[in-house]
Amino acid sequence: MSDQRLHCINCGIASWRRNPSIGLHQIEEESILSVIQQWVAPQVVNRSHHICQGCRDLAMRPSGADEQLSIPTTGHCQVCVNCGRSVLRARSHLLRTDIERERRIHTVISEWILPRTISRARALICHSCWVRADRNAHHYLARPSGSSGSVNVTSGHGELTPQCPPPPRPTSQASQATSQFTPRVSDSIILPDYVRAVDTESQCFIEGCRRQERNRVPVTIRKMLLDHYKFYIPKNNRLCDHHLKIQSWDFLTGILENYINVFTALHIQDMLELKSHSNTGLNFIDIQNMEDHLVHHWLGFTKEQYQRILNEVPQLLLKSSGPIGLTAYLMKLRTSDSNERISALFNIPKRTLDGYVSEARHLMYDYFVPRHLGLNHMNRQEIVDRTLLIPQGLFGNHNGVNKPVIIIDGTYCFIEKSSNYLYQKRTYSLHKYNNLVKPFMIVCADGHIVDVMGPYPATTSDAEIINHEFRDPNSILRQYFQAGDAFVLDRGFRDALPLLHECGYRTYVPPTLQEGEWQHSTLEANKSRAVTIYQMGC
Fold first, then answer.
1. Which residue spans of the chain are classified as CATH 1.10.472?
2. Euclidean distance between CA atoms 510 and 244, whole angstroms
């Protein structure tokens, strides 16, 4: 979680970073609140704001005359207006608007500290913030959603009024005419019913979020927030992974008052374009027009991967219902939703969707699966080429010839408890205390799945499965794998090792402690590690 950035509402010093002993206090006394309100006017101050101990002591001092209360006084004078760091002994810069570069930095800092304002005559920023603002000033001028002016709070009712923004960059013909800064009429406007996020690309636009990811905000999310919450997100703002995948935005209703309602002409233009944007949303009939993150969220594939599946199974394109059935089938594999829920998303009857999904499943099994699964989809040399450097050096070389190196192991697919007693008995595992079936995996050294056999009942051991598959000399596995091939196994295949050695295969199994032994020898431990590091890596 990020640090809570508490700034003194009067002098701006912060209690985070390197000055935790500043001693910020909430404004609870009415007398202190009235004094602070006069000092920072026209900025709005309430009891939720904080003041440092120095400003608190100054506000509590006895006043001899009423006119003394109207003189703004700060407990700390040498403070960076952006980060709140004390610059008493650090390099700092004075915020000015004399030349265009300084005006651009002034504009960037004004946008960063919203809803706070630059109200002091001698406003300072530390060198780090000055460098960041100078670097980002060019982005604020170049991007279409950049703010063209700074914002000041001017009324006690929380309304914001804009300052005159800096003039545009002078051209070569008008360089002399713009040598002196002359304010022009502001192109900012206050929309009392709408708010916007601070215009920044450095972090997630949600207030208080300090996650490191910076994803572009999808158009669908920007339009939804504008339509339902009247919350405008500038075009180049960023969003973290957590808020990108969030399902409900109702939490915004409690924090929208912390955002600003001053908009530039570019903001208004972008808002109108968002309003006119056709919200495709979850249009599963037309995947290509959906947002990329929505496609991956519902299907588990990108648009390019989805199109590749369609291209490899052209039979799906020959039917008008083929792409719809494939989309529904992938969605069912991804979400495990019922056909009733999926049919509601597609806005088609459930019985029709059942036929689409069944047809897509059969076409995928007949045309797509043989291309990517099974012993026939790759030859032995391809398995050798997929062997990584370490397993090739440990197990691959046999009499000077590189042989295939594969991992064989069983895995688990948990299922629901069956009402059929015999099936329930065969699928209940005393090892996992659950109902499951066991697919049997044959995997290359780089993790590529060569084939999946089974599934087998939960009561069948790994050794029994491999004895069943390799006992027949005419079996497809005996014909595919040749003498000298390397099999990396675990200790559960101990009873199948004699058969594999009889077939001429080389087996690598972690050694087992013999009776009376407490630990492996150094040689046996190294051999065990050579096998397990390869198994865990895949």
1. 287-372
2. 45
Residue 34, pLDDT score: 83
Residue 436 in contact with residue 427, Cβ under 8 Å? yes
* Cα–Cα distance measured from residue 142 to residue 235, given in angstroms and rounded to the nearest whole number: 13
Calculate the CA dihedral of residues 63, 84, 188, 249 and round it to 10 degrees.
-110
Asked which of 41-45, 66-70, 253-257, 361-365 is least confident by mean pLDDT, the reply is 66-70
- pLDDT tens-digit series, residues 403-443: 888 888 888 889 888 888 888 888 898 888 889 999 988 99
Q: Where, residue-wise, is CATH 3.30.420 in the chain?
A: 375-537
How high is the pLDDT of residue 65? 45
Task: Name the CATH architecture for the domain at 375-537.
Answer: 2-Layer Sandwich (3.30)
Strand partners, 14: 7
CATH T-level assignment (fold) for domain 287-372: Cyclin A; domain 1 (1.10.472)
Residue 14 is classified by DSSP as B
Tell me the per-residue pLDDT of 82-99, one tens digit each, with 9 for 90 and over: 887 888 888 888 887 778
Kindly list the distances between the CA atom of residue 380 and the CA atoms of 211, 289, 292, 444, 508, in Å, as whole numbers in the listed order. 47, 42, 37, 11, 19
